[in-house]
Structures are given as C-alpha cells and as structure tokens.
Amino acid sequence: MVVRQLVEADWPAVAAIYAEGIATGDATFETEVPGWERWDGGHLRTPRLVAETDGVVVGWAALAPVSERACYWGVAENSVYVAADARGKGVGRMLLERLIADAEAAGIWTIQTGIFPENVTSLRLHEAAGFRIVGVRERIAQLGGRWRDVVFLERRSGTI
C-alpha cells in the first residue's frame, strides 16, 4: 500500500469512497457527495492523502479549516474514509498516521473531528492515534429525520 498526496485526477475514486461512507448513515451528515470544486474549496491544500493498493485508490484523508479567523489557522478538522472492500486492513490507520505527521509538518497544532457514536471503528482508530474525547454533542443535528449525537475528539500536537 502506498500513501500519497491526493490530486484532482483522484476525485472520481475519492468521490466513490465518500459515497460509500455516506450510504452507511454513520460517517457524515452529508447526504450527497459534493462536486470537486466545492470539496476542493473546503479543504486545506495539504495534507490531502489517498491510499493506493495496486494502483487503485482505497481510501482518502484530508483536513478542513475550522475557522477563517487568523487565531485558528493551526486548527483543522479531519476526514478519513476507506473503501468498503478495504476496511479492516489498516488503511485508515496508515492514512490517519500520515495525516497527523503531515499536519504537524505544516504547522497544524490541533486536529479535531466529530464522529457518530455508532461508528465504533472510527472512534477506536482516532483514540489509538492519540485523539481524546472532549465530549458528546447531543442531538446536534438531524440526519434522515433523526436527531444524532456526535462524539467530539481532538488531538493536540506534542511538538508544536
């Protein structure tokens, strides 16, 4: 498996993996995959990563800014998605570890994320990577007409 920078040409594969995550109902509040332009505009330029196995994109990870205010330039929210047929093979771990390393190299001092409590695999992955649970945002929003909780986690850099 190779982890490399995500480029625009990866978008069809990235979008397909994103759609699989959306379809689970436990990965995001998004209900549709955005177009490249919207996704591109909402994420930091680096790090944006894909994992490939035999030349096939099997996962992706990226950071989005949490605020446009200058004081928060080093705080970002992460996303990690793995293709359904590649889950349980260490793809998410490899992507998240590299995302953390690249984020710190770029000066990001806090990575945060919100995960549905039902997504136990993602919660365990993030905790194993040094994220701590800050709290639960109860009934923060609705998805499919159902109120959902989100576990809020963060990881602070030990070097910045």
Task: Please characterize this protein's 3D structure.
This protein has 160 residues and is an alpha+beta fold. The chain has 4 helices and 7 strands. It has helices spanning 11-24, 36-41, 91-105, 120-128; strands at residues 2-5, 48-53, 56-65, 75-82, 110-115, 132-143, 146-156. The chain has a 7-stranded mixed β-sheet. The model has no long low-confidence stretch (mean pLDDT 97).
Q: CA-to-CA gap between the ends?
A: 29 Å
* Biggest sheet character: 7 strands, mixed
**What would you call the structural class?**
alpha+beta
Number of strands: 7
Helix share bin? 25-40%
Which spans have pLDDT < 50 for at least 5 consecutive residues? none
Give the overall pLDDT as a whole number. 97
Cross-sheet strand order for the largest sheet: 1-2-3-4-5-7-6
- How many helical elements? 4
Q: How much beta, percentage-wise?
A: 35-45%
Report the C-alpha radius of gyration, rounded: 15 Å
Short description:
This protein has helices at residues 11-24, 36-41, 91-105, 120-128, and strands at 2-5, 48-53, 56-65, 75-82, 110-115, 132-143, 146-156. It is an alpha+beta fold and 160 residues long.
Please name the defining characteristics of this protein.
4 helices, globular, 160 residues, seven-stranded mixed sheet, alpha+beta
What is the element layout, followed by pairings?
Elements lengths: L1 E4 L5 H14 L11 H6 L6 E6 L2 E10 L9 E8 L8 H15 L4 E6 L4 H9 L3 E12 L2 E11 L4
Parallel strand pairs: 4-5
Antiparallel strand pairs: 1-2, 2-3, 3-4, 5-7, 6-7
